[in-house]
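#structure-requests
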Amino acid sequence: MESVTVRRQQYEDEGFIKQSNGELTKALIGALLKRPTFSAFTWVRGHNGHPGNEAADQLAGQAAAREIEDVLNLDVDEALRLTGAKLSAMTQELAYKAIRTIRTQKAEARTSTAQRVAQILSDIEDNFKVQIPEKMLWRSLKKPVVSREARQWIWMVIHDGYMIGDRWLRPNMSDELKERATCRTCGQTETMQHILFCCNACGREIIWTLLRESWEASGFPRYDPDWGNIIGAACAVIRPHGPDSKRNAVAEDRWAILAIESAHLIWKLRCERVIANDGAEFAERQVANRWYAALARRLDLERKVVALTPGKKRAKLQTKLDAVWRPLIEDLPDQSTDWVTDSGVLVGIKRGSRRELETDPG
């Protein structure tokens, strides 16, 4: 509420450029100004039994649980609409952000991006029985379950931004460079579809098998990897007890972590094989070890984040991390969540039926 009270003048002077929900704030201010009487706000202590506050909290919870967000009318009466920022409030940072925003709004979507997004959204609907708008896909990349490194990779994948496949067949490319368009193992054009879901080179199928084993071991039915449940994994809607049952947020986070880390590893191994190793394939044992190591690094990072989180928020994050990761971890001593922040407790990812790949000395 500070946006329409104590900070209103500042935001208006800056043209709402830096505010993430600027359009919503402008619509709210416009609605208040349109009222024929004075509007006053009174602060009340939250979660203290106040009827209005409890009702608002209940409505907010119901809205947050919806799979599809409401379509809001953000139109503001022309006489009440403020546009632009005051010169006295303008800074280089504000001007730069305003220019970037205007260019983004005017930019047309690339055909390849639109096709990729359509495929992801279609597969999400097939897998999770829910329709989501495109903006929810982009917003999902900012969720904590998506690491910064994976976020950049997914963004490039959706935009078809990597130099692979037909891009090596441009007229100005030498014959040597044009050879990079084809997968040496399969003899097919090396698209991202081929790399993630079709390639026969050692690595891809092993990683997907390890993903399935870990996921099914935690008590959930398998998903066959596709664009929706892998690249759109952070949009997963998992209802274990039927389409009308409650969503399992813990399972959704677990799937997103497993799916995204697995897919990103497939890409990394492909790049190492093609670029660093000149086409030489990895051994099955190497691939499996890399997968377990990738999950172990991710778990270690999350434990450090929780340990460094101050105050009451740490306990909440500690409980959540324990719920998400416990089914994937080998031999935790008890049901306590202390292992999350205790650096003296060594934990490892639970090994599946491919244990022999990791222990075979040959």
